[in-house]
Amino acid sequence: MSQVHLAALFVLATATIVSTQPESHTAPAAPPLVANRIILRVTDLAKSVAFYRDLVGLPLQSDTGEFAVLGAGGALVMLHQLTLKSSAPSTGLAAFTEVVLESPDILASYRALKTRGVAFRIEPRVATTDGTRDLYVTDFRDPDGHVLSISGWVARSTR
């Protein structure tokens, strides 16, 4: 083999090795993302709007007949009317999705929602503590079976 052929083979081999090495470049900085909407698929929009507005107490911002937007400040709950209905129960991880609503006074929120007709699975209970406060949680279901919970910190001295 001639020196020209060997040199060409060396260049080709080197180029192949270099091109298979991962590029080392820094990803551009991205602005921080904030969760601000939760979309729940529902089978009866009017029934779900009444539940979230009248029982849970989220203010209705808009209702187009296909989408309804509820909430004020923080994340919004958007209800989307499904046109295709399924009688099958939710499966997979989607069946374990939970919407958490935080309350500055969970015990008062629990009593108010219960009085409005919300059927809670259990009474508020301590989920965790930071040493001076306990995080209380409780949960319930909406008309389509979505899990919702309310949570709130309670100072240990006020229980």
Biggest β-sheet: strands ordered side by side in the sheet = 1-4-3-2
Structural class: alpha/beta
Terminal Cα separation, in Å? 90 Å
Approximately how much beta-strand content do the residues carry? 25-35%
Q: What do you see in this structure?
A:
- With 159 residues, the protein is an alpha/beta fold.
- It has 2 domains: 50 residues, 2,3-Dihydroxybiphenyl 1,2-Dioxygenase, domain 1 (Roll), CATH 3.10.180.10; 65 residues, 2,3-Dihydroxybiphenyl 1,2-Dioxygenase, domain 1 (Roll), CATH 3.10.180.
- The protein is built from 3 helices and 8 strands; from the N terminus they run αβαββββαβββ.
- The chain has a 4-stranded mixed β-sheet, with helices on one face. It has a 4-stranded mixed β-sheet with strand order 5-8-7-6, with helices on one face.
- Strand 3 and strand 4 form a beta hairpin.
- It is globular and about 50 Å long.
- The protein starts with a helix and ends with a strand.
